[in-house]
Amino acid sequence: MNHFTAVILAAGKGTRMKSDRPKVLHEVAGRAMVDHVLTAAEEAGASRRLVVIGFGGERVAAAVEGRAETVVQEEQLGTGHALLVSQAALANFSGTIMVLCGDTPLLRAETLRQFYQEHQASGAQATVLTAILDDPTGYGRIIRDDFGGVCRIVEQKDATDAERAVREVNTGIYCFEAPLVFEVLAGVGSNNAQGEYYLTDVLGDLVARGQSVRAVVVEDTEEMMGINSRGQLAEAEAILKRRVLVALMENGVTVVDPASTFVEPTVVIERDTILYPFTWLGGKTVIGKDCRIGPNTRLTNVQVGEGTEVHFSYAHDCEIGDGVTVGPFAHLRPNTVLADKVKVGNFVEVKNSVIGEGSKLPHLSYIGDTDMGAGVNMGCGTITVNYDGKKKHRTTIEDGAFVGCNANLVAPVTVEKGAYIAAGSTITKNVPAGALGVARAKQSNLEGWVKKRS
Ligand code: UD1
Ligand code: CA
User: Fold this and answer.
1) Is the CATH code 3.40.190.10 the one for domain 230-437?
2) pTM for this structure?
3) Which atom of ligand 1 sits closest to the CA of residue 54?
4) Which of 97, 236, 261, 356 has its CA 20 to 30 A from that of 338?
């Protein structure tokens, strides 16, 4: 297991986003960019994590709460200064610090793990992760000596024409050894094109001190993409989306139309499930084998069993069993549990309810705060009246009950085993097992009324 401290630089404003929101809180695949970076660091073995915050710092701190410590950089004087402000928090720390940026959501944990291991194995005082790009514009360039050793990093704005021709760039990810890195950082000045304290200067300074500095070239250049604009945000979204869908397909999931299917990286789907177009799956959603999801379906934090179908529907924070059919046009709200073989049909809303095995809610119902047994049939338009204007109450419908169309069940109320409710009834009292509950005006027919009227 790896053990290192990660420092994530996230104090910058991200001017090019044209946003009131701190850059690292913009979302890719449903999660803040800094969250992706933090997750990669955690998974790579960063046993301690610090995030340097500044612009919109309170919001960033709230986003990483419980997962990282935060240190405040009051004024954004450059990346070198950003690492320097973490020194106090790391005063007694001796070991490897991995520096990351909060705006690189595509980084993989595996890449960081390997990078750290290469740094460890070489015994270098600093290792920089680099990439070779066709178009290196905007990035710091890696300047090597005649023997291929790293000499220093030069920023685009400070580079000569010859240096700008170098295609090997700084990804902004480094491993440093503390406390030496802080000693060197203290001596870094801001005499450069941007008047900033550059973290990149530490590498040249270490070389000047005769310390060993290495570079590791990353293979997948997409991974280190830093997001500076909304255009790049959409590019990252597309890359991450494709990555997730490719992994799903490799594991045996059919994605009918990858262009219109969105699956967040946190979602787990088992083999032979088919995702139809315009489907968005997110959060802690888990879908079993042989399901058909979509078209036009959104599931967030939903557990789905095997062989279940969900069409044109929205469900969040709920559980769906095996062999269930949902939709079209159903809305399943939090704390809903559908047991196996349940059927929830068109224009049905279910909230905070347990629906027993094989029960059917085929059309136009609202079921809220309800405990429903197995084999219940809810007629078209049935409603549980759960709210008296002040409080919510529960409805109980026992096994095998048959509730006729357009019935209102005014909670708290119980329909016992096998009872029937006449269509159009408004039920306010419990209905005993095996009884028929009728609560509607008797019909009378006025013979000949039509003729008399004219
Ligand atoms: C930096 C590197 C450059 C590298 C590039 C990779 C320096 C001097 N340059 O340039 O060599 O190719 O990243 O993407 O380091 N930040 C702070 N406080 C500050 C300044 C920045 O926390 O005072 C944070 C930003 O929020 C961001 C990260 O540091 O997450 C990088 O800053 P940015 O301004 O984007 O650096 P680049 O100019 O892209
Ligand atoms: Ca950047």
Assistant:
1) no
2) 0.82
3) 22
4) 261
